[in-house]
Fold this sequence. Notes:
Shape: elongated
Bound molecules: aspartyl-adenosine-5'-monophosphate
CATH superfamily of the largest domain: Bira Bifunctional Protein, Domain 2
CATH architecture of the largest domain: 2-Layer Sandwich
Strand order of the largest sheet: 6-10-11-16-15-14-13-12
CATH topology of the largest domain: BirA Bifunctional Protein, domain 2
CATH class of the largest domain: Alpha Beta
Number of domains: 2
Number of strands: 16
Distance between the termini: 29 Å
Number of helices: 11
Order of helices and strands: EEEEEHHHEEEEHEEHHEHHEEEHHEH
Radius of gyration: 27 Å
Helix content: 25-40%
Amino acid sequence: MISRVLSAELAEHAGQRVTIAGWVHRRRRLKSVTFLVVRDRSGLAQVVAPGVAPGAEPCAVPGAEPCAVPGAEPGVVPGEETVVRVTGVVTANPQAPGGAELTEPEIEVLAEPTEAPPFDLYRPVVAAALPTILDHAPVALRHPRLRAPLEISAASVAGFRRALDRLGFTEIHTPKIVASATESGANVFGIDYFGRPAYLAQSPQFYKQAMVGVFERVYEVGPVFRAEPHDTVRHLAQYTSLDAELGFVRDHRDVMAVLREAVAGMVEAVRGQPAVDLLDVTLPEVPAEIPAIHFTEAQRLTNEFEPDLSPDQERWLSEWAVREHGSEFLFVTGYPMAKRPFYTHPDPLREGYSNGFDLLFRGVELVTGGQRLHRHQDYLDALAARGEDVGPYEGYLQAFAHGMPPHGGFALGLERWTARLVGAANIRQATLFPRDLHRLSP
Ligand code: AMO
């Protein structure tokens, strides 16, 4: 490893000569002094170089102005996005990021950019439109504000894992090339698998259920694929699904209680992250018991009676939950069986309704979950009732033929979570290299 201190640690080394390394975030040339701001993974550090010598040689970096430092080689005050190693003396300066800067620098160029960035990465806010940002994602994401949602996403996943590890869950990794659709045949990507038809997994649903028969409690963090033909601010063709499944539940309410712990763990893990301050994120309170209403009550409140909730209804219900319960989270339980997948457990007390739920957060559906069927015969009946052949499901049904406990689980869309948390208008702002109807690269 190149021996260095991180910019965030600079102040701890006051008076010492240290080395930092990173990218030139900004070069600001004044009459008698040049300021370099160096960006590394921990933040920004200021370097103060002596003024520009009159008649200095042009920098080797394209677009650079004359930049030689007196007594130094030409090119030592390099332009933006040059990768540098800087050795200098740590000097206190309350105006510098972190309260310290490097003076008397020796600057070594590790790599020079061959192109100028598509927009100024040093400006506090990027003015470019989202498609331009996404087209240039490998470099655009270097901007601290564009990177921040991904830092929040990483912390959220760490919190999800920590919360479920604590509850005795085992992390699993299931195949993403599968033989049958899990959620609905409509939005599945077909692929050619050595000459046979196959699909990209829409969810780890079947495998996570089967693994309840092995581990009782499992979770997975992984990619899932949806051939979403509509162009919305909340749908991707590939997203990251945070899935969990657990056995020996009484009904869906035990699943909801575990989901509450997972979400609380995610919020706790995000708290204190520099990205939260940078984006001025207001973290939600996760109530000890998240309010829940029945689907029919949600219909009645919104005075709309379709068998599924529309985005407008979800928005309205979220606002209602804040008003009525002071909660940014709201469970809607008991969705109609007709609108849920065949593995859904019916509500034993309410004909036509299910033990399935959604969790709404800040106006959108964040999570789907519920209790599942667990008896083999119930699966055969459910598939028959939907006119489906058992053939494609044989592998899955093995688990039930060999005894499965009452169980349930949920899946949370990571990008939706992050987008709602940071207040991004478009899910793509919280997605690394989004895949959608139009976008396959970068
Ligand atoms: P569902 O299909 O509702 O349920 O997906 C669960 C959660 O995933 C997110 N999500 C999406 N995010 C971005 N782009 C999409 N196209 C997209 N589709 C869904 C949402 C949604 O709430 N197997 C069930 C889960 C279960 O019952 O355990 C399932 O996949 O946040």
